[in-house]
Design goal:
Blueprint lengths: L8 H18 L5 H7 L4 H13 L3 E6 L11 E5 L4 E8 L3 E8 L4 E8 L6 H15 L13 E9 L2 E3 L4 E4 L12 H6 L8 E5 H12 L8 E7 L2 E8 L2 E2 L31 H4 L2 H10 L8 H4 L8 H9 L3 H25 L3 E6 L5 H13 L11 E4 L6 H18 L3
Parallel strand pairs: 3-6, 6-9, 10-13, 13-14
Antiparallel strand pairs: 1-2, 3-4, 4-5, 7-8, 10-11, 11-12
Amino acid sequence: MAKQSGHNPSSVRINNRRMVLNEFREAKTLTVTEISQKIQLSKTTLWKIIDHFIEENLIINIGKAVATDDVGKKPELYKFNATYSYQISIAIYEHMVILAITDARSSIFYKEKVFLKENEELDKIIEIISAFIETWQNPENLPEERSNSILAGIAIASSGVIDSEQGNCFTASRFHSWPVLAPIKKMIEDRVELKAPFYIDNYNRYFAFAEKALGGFRDNANIVDIVTTNGGLGAGIIAENKIKRGPRFLTGEIGHMCLDPNHKEECHCGGHGCFEQLVSSDIILKKAEDGRTNHPKSSLYSDKTDREITMSDIFTGADTGDAWCMEILDEIINWFAIGIQNIILVFNPEVVIISGDYRTAGPYFRTNLSKRIEKQSLIRMPKNIRIEYSNFNEEGSILGASCYILHDYFNNRFEY
C-alpha cells in the first residue's frame, strides 16, 4: 500500500495528487472507494484531488458504477482522460518511416507509413519528418474531439547509434549515405520550429520501454528486449528500471557482437561474424530455398510451389515436427543462445524478450533456446532466465517513444 511522504503541506499535497493520478493512469476506471482501498487517503481528500484533476481536464466523470447490491447507492465512476495530451511519435527503420500521433494512454489514433529506398539519404528522411511535425504540432489539425489536447512532446525512434542528449546519430550501419555524427535534431529544427520537448533515441530502447510500460513487464526491473528487423539486430536494455545507454550510447548494440570471427562475409558495420549476420532472416530464407532438392518431402515445399517461403512457414514446420525446419532453426538457436548467454553474463536480466522477425517463432524455438542457454556456460548454475515473445509489431518503438514522453512529462514536467 502506498504511503504519504513529504515534510510540509505543499509536498504532501503534491505527493498525494501524484499517487492518485498514477492510479488513474494505470486503471481503466475507478471509484473513490477503490482508490481509498489502494492508498492511505481519506475520501474527503480524494474528492478534493479528483475535483482538481477534473478542472485540469485530466480526469472525467463517466457516470454511475454498477451497485454491489440491489439497494446500494451507485458510486460515481471516473477515468483518466486519454485526450488530455497527444504525442508525435516517429520511427526510422531501414526500409520505412512510421509517423504516428498517440493519445495520453499511448494509443495510436493516426498513422502514416512512408517506404524508403535502400540507403535512403538523410535529407529526404528529415524532409518527411519535418513536414509531419509541422502539420501535427498544431492542435487545430487534430480531430474536433481532441482539439483541447496539449502536445506533450515529439519523439523519434531512429536506426543507428544515437546520442539522445545532443540529438545526433554517430553512425547508422544500414544508412551508409548518412554523414558521421549526423545532426538529426538540428536538421529538423532548421526546417520547423519545435513547439514541444524533443526526444530521440535508438528504436530498440523505445521497444524495451514499451515492454516495460505496456507489455506486461512493469514488475521487472531488469529486462533485455532483442529486436530483429530486416536483417538488423539490436537490444533495448533496462537495468534497475532505467534505460541503459552508456557514455558513448553503445549499450544495446549487441547485433555487432562478434560471435564467429571466421565468418567470411562482411557485416554492414564492417566487421565479420556479427550476431545479426548469423541470425538474419535472409540467411534462414535462403537456406530454406536452397533445400528444395535435398528435402523434397519437407512441408516447406509440398504445398508452397507458387509462393515464396516465409519465416512463419519455417516456425510452423518446426512446431509440427518437420525435421528440415527443425534443422534450419537449430543453427539459428545456437547463435541466439551464445549471444543471449553473453548478455546474461554482462547484464543478468530477469527476462529476455524476443521482438521483431522472431517474435512469432513458436514453442520449438523458445523451448530449445532456453535449453541451449542453460548448457552454454556455467552449466552447474541454473540461469532461470525467462524467454518471452513480444506482443508488439513494428509499432513497438512508436508506442515506447510515446510512453517515454509521458513518463518524462508526468514525472518531471507536470505541475501537481
